[in-house]
Prior knowledge:
This is Penicillin-binding protein activator LpoB. Residues 1-21 form the signal peptide. The chain has 205 residues and is an alpha/beta fold. It has helices at 2-19, 52-67, 70-78, 98-115, 123-134, 146-153, and strands at residues 83-86, 90-92, 119-120, 157-169, 174-186, 192-204.
Amino acid sequence: MKSIRSTIACLASVLTLGALGVLTPACGGKEYVRDSHDPSIDNAAMSTGLDKDDIQRMLSENLNNLRNAPIMDLWRTHRGADTVAVFPFQNETSEHIESQLTTILSEAETWMVDSGVVTMISRERQNQMIAEVEGHRNAVFNPAHVAQYGRQLGAKYFITGKVSTSDERTDDKRRVQYFFYMQVIEVETSAIRWQHKAYITKMVR
Length: 205
C-alpha cells in the first residue's frame, strides 16, 4: 500500500513540475538539465574530443583575425561583387570529429553571409558541382580538386581549413592539442590570400 502511495505521489509531482516547464528526474531515475537552467553545464569538458566551447573558441579566434585581414578590406571595397565558396574542413586527427567540422563549416558560412561583403555560393550547389567534377552522382569531396570545384561554381575565392592534433600520453594522463587552420584561397592563382591558426589543449588525468 505504501509503495502505491509513493508511486502516486511521485507521478503527481512529475506532472505538476512538468506543467511548470521544470525538468526533473523520473522517480529514482536520471536528472536532465537544460542549459537555460544551469549555464555551467557547457563549461566542463566531458572528453578529449572537441565540444561546443572548443569550436566557438577556435572559430572565433580565426574569424576575428579574418575580420581585420587585407583580403577582408578588399572584399569590403568590392561590396558583394566577389563570390566565395566554403569547402569542407579536413580531419587530420585520429578523433571522430566529422560532426564538429560540419558545425564549424556552417558557423563560418553564416559569419560570411552576415558580414555582407561577399556573395556566398550555397553548399547545395557545391554538392552538384563536386558530382560533375568527379564524374558520378554520389561523389565525395576531394581536397586535390578544390580549384576545379571553384571554377565550376564560378567562385573567385574559397574558404577551407583543417584540424590536426598532437597527442601525448603517459601512464595515467593524456594530452591532446588541437590545431585549427583556416585559409582563403584565390581560385584563379591558387594563392593563399589569408591563413590563421588557432589551437586548444585538452587533457584527461
